[in-house]
Amino acid sequence: MSNKRKAYLFIDGTNLYAGQYELFGPNKYLSFPRFLKAIETKLKLRFARIYFYASYSPQPVKLTKKAKKYLKNEALFYRSVKKTPRTVFFKGYRSPTSGKEKEVDVKLAVDIVDFAYRNKYDDLYLLSGDADFMAAIQVAQKLAKRIVILAIQNRVPNRFSYNFPTVVFFLTEKLNDKFFPRQKIKLVRLRRGEIWRKVR
Prior knowledge:
The chain contains 7 helices and 11 strands. It is α/β, with parallel strands linked by helices. The strands form 3 sheets. Strands 4-3-1-7-8-9-10 form a 7-stranded parallel sheet, with helices on both faces. It has a two-stranded antiparallel ribbon with strand order 2-11. The protein has a two-stranded antiparallel sheet with strand order 5-6. A hairpin with a 6-residue loop joins strand 5 (93-94) and strand 6.
């Protein structure tokens, strides 16, 4: 029997998309397969499974040029996720009245806990800028799972970084000095040419 530890990556996809859009704008988008490859290379591991949770933005009644660009960018990004091997894409939905995301965070938290109880993984990697998942990962920790938090530089969940090892991936050339004093944070620079694609 193999003693190799099994690592699962859970991704708050809507949060990741919003963060990369802030960095790249409407004319570029994060190539998820390239990003995943860069993460695995830097961490020197291979995830057994990647679970990605997101919802598509609703199309406004009045479709402006700006909204059209955003929706196209979002669609291309999510398409790159769906085409990535080992990746399970969970699609939530948006409230027709408020536009708020539904099911996504709950499903992510439930899967973290459920898979931990069923001993599907040994190491839990969570990529999110949202510290609302603290209760779920604490359950996994109590079940002797190793926890590592991943983030991009403009979506760092500070509450997590005080409690768990955290790796911040910089998708642009600029490093932010405010992250350096945090003991549990490791900074990793990724070359932009390797991780983004132009919208055509």
